[in-house]
Amino acid sequence: MATTASHSGGGGHGHGSDTRLHEDLPHYREFHITHPPTSLFHWTLLGIAILLVITVVLYYIDLSTFIPIAGINLIVALMVATVKAFLVIRNFMNLKGSTPLTVLWAALGFIWLLLMGGIFLDYRTRPESPGWQKLEYTGQNASPNTVKEVAPEQTQSNP
User: Fold this and answer.
1) Cα angle, residue 58 at apex, residues 56 and 63 outer, rounded to 5°
2) DSSP category for residue 147
3) Both 27 and 46 in a single domain?
4) C-alpha distances in Å from residue 90, one per residue of 51, 78, 79, 82, 107
5) Which residues lie closer than 8 Å to 154 by C-beta, 6 or more apart?
6) Are 15 and 83 in a shared domain?
7) Which pLDDT belongs to residue 50?
8) CA triplet 42, 46, 50: central angle to 5 degrees?
9) Angle at Cα 59 formed by Cα 54 and Cα 122, nearest 5°?
């Protein structure tokens, strides 16, 4: 049985010298979760703070005067937000040291987000529908293409 100096001699945790350490168990490496050092969290926080300052500066500066692309501020702001989200997911949510299945589920979440965003953007770009019932105007000034929406109760005839 493996022991260390801190566990031997019966001192410390009330265990004798025959205490088996968890590192010696058969599947320790397979199921052991390694935690990143705290310096990684500090660097990530600093990076996110710098990106936050860049986002605020982008609000006050119009980049289209320097780069002739329509909506360049929005494009750059979305790129900065993507980098911030990547840093949070990778480091704070410990996706870096996780299993491939966890990475797959995280990727599927973003794919689902993109699909839902695409559906709503597609819905937003469609022209307005005049409704399911149309009634043409018979007035003198009405053009032939003019239609009026009619509620279902207006289509019933009175006896």
Assistant:
1) 170
2) E
3) no
4) 16, 18, 16, 12, 12
5) none
6) no
7) 97
8) 170
9) 105
Quick one: 52 and 93 in the same domain?
yes
| Parallel, antiparallel or unpaired: strands 134-136 and 147-149 | antiparallel
In a domain, 10, yes or no: yes
Q: Looking at the structure, do residues 120 and 56 belong to the same domain, yes or no?
A: yes
Whole-angstrom Cα distance, residue 40 to residue 97? 13
Structure tokens at 6: 């801190």
Are both 43 and 119 inside the same structural domain?
Answer: yes
Is 70 exceeded by the pLDDT of residue 47?
Answer: yes
Check whether residue 58 and residue 83 sit in a common domain.
yes
Q: What CA–CA distance (Å, rounded) separates 118 from 112?
A: 10
This prediction has a pTM of 0.54
Q: Which residue has the tokens 């410990």?
A: 94
pLDDT at 7 over 50: no
Summarize pLDDT for 64-114 with one digit per residue, the tens: 899 888 889 989 999 999 999 999 988 888 887 788 898 899 889 889 988
Domain of 11 in residue numbering reads as 1-32
Query: For residue 140, what are its two tokens?
Result: 């003198």
On whether both 66 and 90 belong to a single domain, the answer is yes
